[in-house]
Amino acid sequence: MLHILLLAAAIQAAEPEQEQEGETGASPWQAEIYSNFTGWTPEELAERDPWDLAHRCGGSLIANGWVLTAAHCIDQAKVDKGYRVRLGADYLDNDEGVTFRIDRMVRHADWNKAEHLYDIALIHYVADKDTHVGSAGPIAPIPLYEGPPLEAGVDVYASGWGQAEEGKDKGFQAELTAVDLRTVDCADYPQYEGKTREYQMCATGRTPGDDADTCTGDSGGPLVLDDPQVLVGVVNWGIGCYRADSAGVYLRIDNEHFRDWIARAMAAAPTVNELR
């Protein structure tokens, strides 16, 4: 049964309703951000499938029409080109889910690409002529965490279609995967000395020697508290992937970090695409 939110979004109707009893889905808030470009060269298509070439980032559905992601995943040029959002998909290689056009975005005005600062953005999506209601899993927004900043030692998990191994142009995973993580102190990792801020946190595998991690293509996706399942972070960056004695860096979502920015960004005029 298709979740009522999918139908509501497809016709741009009312606010999403609660997930219907009996429906399941590990990450019904998971979103994909992808390019609508189709003019791949034969050489490119010989190496990678169109869905793989088009994939850009992950995101989290937080309200009807709104997906939270990383600032480096979206800009006005991508909106103008017709970039899209996919919801309700586990697999990207079989046309699962329902897709929408991104009609506007709001990026943090202090985002700094070189230093990975304020890496947060919101995208707004709408149905268009290419939106179709096909094979899709349950779709539901995830609540934002309302507590104090997480300390080290908290069990969380991230999900996405990112690369399964480190390296340039390795290709993305067709199946949505989730990785169990635990928050850690970024200061415990010398490679991040002077490179993280108080509104960022680090997370790594839950057991010693565990190289669990997020990677390229997971950016913008959700970092979720184990219990209750609420959004506590956004996948931002890291030095490599799956390395020993390392961790990924995530932007915090909590009572002291970015909840107010998210509310103001969603309430901003449609002409606003940057907000401090």
UniProtKB/TrEMBL annotation:
State if Disulfide bond is listed as a keyword. yes
Looking up Pfam families in the UniProt record yields: Trypsin
Q: Name one GO biological process term.
A: proteolysis
Answer whether the UniProt record assigns the keyword Cell membrane to this protein.
no
GO MF term (any one): peptidase activity
Key words, A-Z:
Disulfide bond, Hydrolase, Protease, Serine protease
User: Peptidase S1 domain: from which residue to which, for each copy?
Assistant: 11-267
- InterPro entries in the record, alphabetically? Peptidase_S1, Peptidase_S1_PA, Peptidase_S1_PA_chymotrypsin, Peptidase_S1A, Trypsin_dom, TRYPSIN_HIS, TRYPSIN_SER
Q: Which family does it belong to?
A: Belongs to the peptidase S1 family.
Record PANTHER family: FI18310P1-RELATED, POLYSERASE-RELATED
Name used for this protein in its record: Serine protease
